[in-house]
Design goal:
Oligomer: single chain
Radius of gyration: 23 Å
Largest sheet: 4 strands, parallel
Number of helices: 12
Helix content: 40-55%
Length: about 375
């Protein structure tokens, strides 16, 4: 017999709330090989991340990758770890707090904001349980991936709906599929680049996006269209000619072909033939993380400058900046039209009290 999660202690007349769930990728608990191995085992076991026959992939993952990669990745994590912890987690938490403060000023305690990670902690299941305990009856899920991909946003949707399928009383659900062409997001990215150039000088702009296997694109993943739109729109806002910007793809692994051009190959070529002064930006990442801080701003910087490049600048991710908070608030507002919790009206306790009296009169236990 299926056992669904119910609310046997529900008190009639309890105010309903709306919830906003921000979801980022995840991070190891600490930069040790043991923690990194645990994190990678969960991440790389996701069938939306690695589309291979499960038995074959299990043998590769546990027989090869998890025997070698954790120690190497742990060394990379140790380079970027802060006294507060993982940069991705710290900035994601600050971003969630900033959004909660913004919505709180308008909506009071009728709207609850929480943060989850696809892999590791805090988990999606844990965040949803906290929403259930606070009587969240309307929920908007905002994956922190501006450009949709089955490997990221698609995986979050599957995890959220799988968890909710265990609930007896489901909340109304809205899901942000992507926001790569949202005006305030694009303005925030363009603004951060413009601010950086005012301080450090204008250089050839290189957009770096996380790559995916080319076969995912050929199978129908729309990610390729979305990152192209982001780069094109940001370049237009900065007034860049086609020769003044380019894009590449990072973070590939394995032997199969991934989306190209690979950013490390692109930068290697630039270090020899020019442009020899570049500005790197990673607009597909909401917060700085291993892939931006260590791979781009350490590995690729060292390679580019070591092979003849003259100047290498990195523009940090939007992180918890006011512009990012404002963009997310605008995105949430556009996806919650018609929900009374977001209207900003004070809660009227009288109808709730009347509803409770009716329920008790009809035999409700609480």
């Amino acid at each position: 017999m299926t056992q669904y999660l119910g609310t046997p202690d529900y008190v009639h007349g309890t105010p309903a709330r709306a919830g906003v769930l921000l979801v980022n990728l995840g991070t190891p608990a600490d930069p040790s090989p043991r923690s990194v191995r645990k994190y990678l085992a969960e991440f790389l076991a996701d069938p939306r991340v690695i589309e291979m026959p499960r038995v074959l992939w299990w043998l590769i993952l546990h027989g090869v990758i998890l025997r070698v990669r954790p120690r190497r990745s742990a060394h990379a994590y140790q380079k970027i770890w802060t006294p507060q912890g993982s940069p991705l987690l710290v900035e994601s938490q600050r971003l969630a707090l900033g959004l909660a403060a913004q919505l709180g000023r308008r909506c009071g305690d009728q709207v609850v904001v929480d943060l989850a990670m696809s892999y590791g902690q805090p988990s999606i299941a844990g965040a949803l349980e906290r929403f259930r305990e606070r009587n969240v009856r309307r929920l908007v899920v905002l994956p922190l991936y501006p450009q949709y991909s089955s490997t990221t946003t698609g995986s979050i949707f599957e995890c959220v709906t799988r968890e909710l399928s265990r609930w007896r009383w489901l909340p109304e659900l809205r899901f942000v599929n992507q926001y790569c062409q949202h005006e305030r997001y694009l303005a925030a990215i363009a603004g951060s680049i413009a601010d950086h150039w005012r301080a450090h000088g204008r250089k050839h702009l290189v957009f770096s996006f996380h790559s995916i296997p080319k076969r995912y694109l050929l199978a129908g993943d729309p990610y390729h269209c979305f990152f192209q739109a982001t780069a094109r729109e940001v370049a237009a806002r900065l007034g860049l000619a086609p020769a003044e910007w380019s894009l590449g793809f990072q973070s590939r692994f394995g032997r199969e072909e991934w989306l190209q051009p690979y950013v490390d190959v692109l930068l290697h070529d630039y270090s020899h033939t020019g442009p020899k002064s570049v500005t790197l930006v990673c607009p597909g990442f909401a917060t700085d993380c291993l892939e931006t801080l260590e791979e781009i701003n350490m590995q690729n910087r060292e390679m580019f400058l070591g092979h003849g490049g003259e100047a290498f600048d990195y523009v940090p991710c939007l992180n918890s900046s006011p512009g990012h908070v404002a963009a997310l608030e605008d995105i949430v507002s556009s996806h919650t039209q018609g929900w009374p919790e977001f209207a900003g009206a004070p809660l009227d306790a009288q109808p709730l009290a009347a509803a409770r009296e009716r329920a008790l009169a009809l035999g409700a236990p609480r």
